[in-house]
Every structure is written in C-alpha cells, then in structure tokens.
Amino acid sequence: MIYQKAQLRVYYAADRTRDAKMPSTVESPVIEAESAEKMTRLSILTSVSRLGWAFNIVVLPLFAIAIGQDEAFYGLMVAAAGYVQSAVLFPAGTFSDRAGRGKAILVGTVASGICLFALPFTSGLWSLGVYALTGIGNGFTSTSVNSLVADYTEKGEERTRSYGVTQAAATLAGTVAPFLGGYILDPVAAPFLDAIAIPGVSSTLTRFAVIFFIMGSIRMLTGVYGIQTEDWLKENYEMELPDAMEEGVELEHLEDAADNDAKTSLLFGVNSFIMGFSSGMVVPYLIPWINKAFTTEPVILGSVPAVSNLILASGTLFVGFSSERIGKLRLVFLLYLLAPILTVGLVWAPYFLLMVVFYIIRMAVANMARPATNSLFMGEITSRRRGRSWAVNRIMWTFPRQTGTILTSFILSAGIFGGIVPFGELFFPIAMALYPVSVLPMYIAVKRNERRREELLALEDNSIT
Questions:
Q1: Residue 413 maps to which CATH number?
Q2: Host domain of residue 307
Q3: What's the structural domain count of the chain?
Q4: Angle at Cα 127 formed by Cα 280 and Cα 134, nearest 5°?
Q5: Which residues is 11 bridged to in the sheet?
Q6: Residue 177 near residue 308 (C-beta atoms within 8 A)
Q7: Residue 123 in contact with residue 114, Cβ under 8 Å?
C-alpha cells in the first residue's frame, strides 16, 4: 500500500481559475479577504449560539428559587437537560454528517427555542420536564457548530487559531448575557419592567419570562444563520479530500481506520468522562455558592461571570495563537494543574473582591484550553467520521457531568454538610483535582496515533524501495 500525500486544494468561487497548487505563503488579497469573511461568519455563528445559552449561568438558579425550589432542584434541572442531550448526541452527530451542519443547527435551535418560550408558563415538575427537553436542541447545535469550524479549516495552526478566534468571540458575546440577565432581574436596576404583564405568567416570573423569550428568539436566529453560513461556505469553498493537511487523513489509509477512530474517540472520551464528572460537581453550583456565601444583588451576581468572560476571551485567543508552538498537551496540562489551586483560593477567600479574582482566573484557566483540546481531537479523527466521533466525545462528557451535578444535588438536599457553602469549601477543590489527571488518556491517544502514522510511513518507504 503506497501512502500518497495529496495537496489541499481550496477553490474560491470568486476565482476558480487560480492555480490549485499555489503555495499557501503566496496569498492574494482576494484569498485573504475570503478567509477573513469565513472567519467572521464562523465567529458570528459561534457567538450567537453561545449568547442564547449564556443567560443560564445566572438566570436558571434564580428561576428555581423563584418557583419555590432550591439549589438541589436547580441541579436536577441542569442534570435532566444534560441527560437528554447525551441521549441525542450520537443521532445528532450522524444527522449532521449526512444531512449537513446547517440543517442540524436549525433543528436544534428550533427545538430548544420552543422549550424556552414555554418555560415561564411552568412550575414544579413541569419546569423540570420542559427544561430537560432543551437538551435536544443543545445536542444538535453543539455537535454541528464545532464540526462546521473544523470542516473549513486546515489541521494544525490554522484550525487551533480558528477555534481560538471563534471561541473568543463566543466568550465575548457570552459576557453580555449574565450581566443583562442580572440587570433584568434586579427591580432596583430595571424598575420599568414592573409595568409589564404577560398573560399566563405570574407577576413574580415576568422578568424571567422576558429573559426566556430573549433566549428563545436568539436560538431561532442561530438556526437561520447556521443554514446561511453553511450555504455560503459551500458556495465559496470547494474542498477536495483526502489531503495531507486535513485532519486524520493519513490514518484514513489504515485498513482498520474506523476501528482506530473508535479507539481514539474512546480515549479522548475518558478524558471527557473524568472532566465531566469533576465539572458537574462544581461549575453549576459556583454562582449559587457565591450567592449564599456573600448574598449579592442579581446585577452584581451577573457581573461576576460577565467580567470572567472578558478575561477568558483574551486567554482563549492566547491559546489559539500559541498552543502549536508551546505544545497542545503541555499547555492543557499546565492550565488544568492550576484549576484546583485557584479553586482553593476561591472558596476560602475572606472578601468578595478577592473571591471574584480567584473565580475569574479559575474560570479562565479551566476553559481557555478548549481551542487546543478541540483542535487536538479533530486532528486525530478522520474527516468522514468527525460528527459522530465528536458526538461520542460529548456523550462521555455530558453523561458523567450531569451525574456529578445530580450527586451534588442529592448531597445538598440531604443536608449532610450543612448547606452549599461548607460543601463547596470541602469538595470543590477535591473535584477540581481531577482536571490534570484527565490529560493522561489524551496523551495515550496522541502517542498511539503517532505510532500508527510511523507505520504508514514505513510502508510507504518499503513500497518505494
């Protein structure tokens, strides 16, 4: 078997007569403009997608309290949506691979938008059930948006940089949502909203209804823009595969390529499993913990994750532009190593402002590695199975994450540790200690595929000689 290295040929619809083998270092202004527009469109798509959900971090725990529930019920809501998302991720990934990313995004956003419109009209178990169904939309959307970015970027520096830029843009967009949500919920900051009356919605939930209607509308717009973005990419970019620059293509020449993809997905999935369980026990409860420990106003509570997102956006850009030089695995490990240390500072900070500093830095280091991990995963999977493989990875993240969330919910409802504040002081740092451990299975997957690539190169050399 001779291993053939193919040149990536990206044709632009505006100039299809261009030499397809022109060196990438000699780019015309037309190509540069097309590339900039591509990145802009992908950044807008990821931004509106994130914006539609970023309200949740502040609004959802306060909504649970407003309908007469507690932090434990809030945990159940988050977990239920996550379990539903886990159930649909694989069929969503398969649908995305076969029908197209844009159609999958549209299906997901319409489903979640309808549920968000209905949520303020519910209470008790109905609220739990309706919010759980939003997991359907999230499953379709998250799989397809990430895969769409990978579809139209080259493996290596371009893809990592693209994930960095798009996720930084999404993070900046997400900065608006928690602050705006806190502002809308605060009767002192926004007293004019008291005049609003919505038929079928109690006066205590009117402000929440406004937010959920905004969220649902943004989700619908995301679906429409997702279709438009994919159509534009198809019209302006014609990608011929296989390609030596495209992710996992050399592994496509393996006789057991599908089996190799499955094993790679499983190893990356173990990483996601460990991180998901750890994250599920901590992250959904950080804002409720801050609310209990320091008793802040909604507008101030919303400003904490908003400021955190600003710092995270800068960190995400740094990782996107530097991880290829530093080394993705090395950088991810160093960032994850800081997560438990900063969590200790967060839960034991004696003053609100000091706690905010630890919160912001902890959220940044725990999340800014995402461009590197996403790019690393996409680079180890053959392109034809990208959507399904990503779905497997997300399932192994989502299911244990919701299990961790629901476990914390049961512990809090049992009152074993005397409430969320003492529980967080003890268990949040312990759970975060699993982050650096989770890098090991990723390391094994990458080294394993490096050996398989070397085997292919050896076969090529033998066939030539």
A1: 1.20.1250.20
A2: 36-464
A3: 1
A4: 60
A5: 238
A6: no
A7: no
**Contact yes or no for 153/159 (Cβ under 8 A):** yes
pTM as predicted: 0.67
Task: Output the six-digit token pair for 217.
Answer: 């509308």
In order along its 465 residues, the chain shows pLDDT tens digits of: 333 333 333 333 333 333 443 444 444 555 566 677 888 888 888 888 888 888 888 888 889 888 888 778 888 888 888 889 888 888 888 888 888 888 999 999 999 999 999 999 988 889 899 999 998 888 888 778 877 877 777 766 677 777 778 877 887 887 788 888 888 888 877 888 888 888 888 888 899 999 999 999 999 999 999 899 888 888 886 544 444 444 444 555 555 567 778 888 889 989 999 999 999 899 888 888 988 898 777 777 777 776 776 666 666 666 656 666 777 888 889 989 999 999 999 999 999 999 989 988 888 887 777 777 877 887 777 766 767 787 788 788 888 888 898 888 888 888 888 888 999 999 999 999 999 999 999 999 888 888 877 777 776 666 655
Contacts of 347 (CB under 8 A, 6+ apart): 289, 424, 425, 428, 429
- Asked if 260 and 254 touch (Cβ cutoff 8 Å), the reply is yes
214 inside domain: yes
Main-chain phi, psi angles of 238, to 5 degrees: -120, 110
Q: Please say whether the dihedral angle defined by the alpha carbons of residues 334, 336, 341 and 343, taken in this order, is positive or negative.
A: positive
- Tokens at 446, concatenated: 């990458």
CA distances from 39 to 49, 108, 209, 289 (A): 15, 23, 34, 38
Query: At a CB cut-off of 8 Å and minimum separation 6, what does 207 contact?
Result: 184, 185, 187, 190, 193
Peptide bond into 429 cis (omega under 30): no
Residue 46 lies in a domain: yes
- Does residue 368 lie in a domain region? yes
Distance separating alpha carbons of residues 389 and 369, to the nearest angstrom: 20
For residue 306, what are the contacts with CB-CB under 8 A and spacing of at least 6? Answer: 175, 176, 177, 178, 179
Q: How many angstroms separate the CA atoms of 366 and 338, rounded?
A: 8
